[in-house]
C-alpha cells in the first residue's frame, strides 16, 4: 500500500509560510464551496429567486405567497447549514489550539475532529476523500488537523515547526503501520 507523504514547500518569498503540497488544492475547493454557498445565500436573500421563480413550467404565474414561502424555507435551510458549518469550524479551531499548546496528542486531536465531521449531517465525505489524497480517512483527518494549525496560529517559525513535527509524526506512523486513532471519549495518552 503506497502512502502519500506531504512534503513542505518552501516559498522563495519568505513572507509566505510553508504549506503541505495538498493544502492549496483543498483550500481552493473549500473556497469554491464557500463562494457557491455565499452566492446561493446572496441570490436567495436579495429576492431575485422570488422574481425568477414566479413563473412555473407551464408559464403560469405563481401566487407571490407560495414563492415567498419556498424562499423562506430555503433561507431557513441555508441558515441552518451555515450555523452547523460555523460550529464545526469553531470546534476544529479549538482542537487545533489544544494540539498547538500540547494539551492533546495528534491522534487525540484527529479523533476529535473526526467526531465533529461524523456528527455533522451536512458533511460531504465524498468531497473530503477527493480533496485530501491519503490511504484512509484516519490519515485524511490527521492531515486536516495539521492544516488546521496553519489556519489558527500566526505565521512564523513556531507554526512551521509544529507542522513539520506533526507531519513527521504522521509519516512515522504511516511507515510503521501504526496509524490508530483513539475514541474521543477515552482517556488521552500522554502528550
Descriptive account of the structure:
This protein is mostly helical. It has one domain (20-52, 62-176). 64% of the residues lie in helices and 2% in strands. It is built from 7 helices and 2 strands. It has helices at residues 23-45, 48-52, 64-100, 106-119, 125-131, 137-152, 157-176; strands at residues 8-9, 19-20. It has a two-stranded antiparallel sheet with strand order 1-2. The longest helix is centred in the middle third of the chain and has 37 residues, at 64-100. It starts with 7 loop residues before the first strand and ends in a 15-residue tail after the last helix. Residues 1-64 and 185-191 have low confidence and may be disordered.
Largest sheet: spatial strand order: 1-2
Kindly state the percentage of residues in helix: 55-70%
Distance between the termini: 29 Å
Please tally the β strands and state the result: 2
Low-confidence stretches: 1-64, 185-191
Estimate what percentage of residues fall within beta strands: under 5%
Number of discrete helical segments: 7
Average residue-wise pLDDT: 74
Shape: globular
Helix-and-strand structural type: mainly alpha
Amino acid at each position: 500500500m503506497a502512502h502519500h507523504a506531504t512534503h513542505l514547500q518552501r516559498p522563495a518569498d519568505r513572507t509566505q509560510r510553508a504549506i503541505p503540497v495538498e493544502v492549496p488544492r483543498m483550500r481552493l475547493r473549500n473556497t469554491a464551496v464557500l463562494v457557491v454557498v455565499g452566492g446561493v445565500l446572496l441570490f436567495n436573500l436579495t429576492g431575485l429567486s422570488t422574481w425568477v421563480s414566479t413563473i412555473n413550467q407551464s408559464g403560469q404565474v405563481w401566487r407571490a405567497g407560495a414563492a415567498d414561502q419556498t424562499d423562506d424555507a430555503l433561507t431557513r435551510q441555508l441558515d441552518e447549514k451555515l450555523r452547523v458549518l460555523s460550529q464545526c469550524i469553531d470546534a476544529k479551531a479549538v482542537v487545533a489550539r489544544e494540539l498547538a499548546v500540547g494539551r492533546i496528542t495528534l491522534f487525540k486531536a484527529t479523533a476529535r475532529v473526526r467526531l465533529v465531521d461524523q456528527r455533522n449531517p451536512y458533511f460531504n465525505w465524498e468531497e473530503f476523500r477527493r480533496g485530501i489524497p491519503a490511504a484512509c480517512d484516519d490519515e485524511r483527518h490527521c492531515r486536516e488537523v495539521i492544516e488546521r494549525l496553519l489556519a489558527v496560529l500566526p505565521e512564523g517559525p513556531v507554526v512551521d515547526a509544529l507542522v513539520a513535527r506533526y507531519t513527521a509524526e504522521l509519516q512515522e506512523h504511516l511507515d510503521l503501520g501504526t496509524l490508530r486513532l483513539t475514541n474521543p471519549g477515552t482517556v488521552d495518552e500522554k502528550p
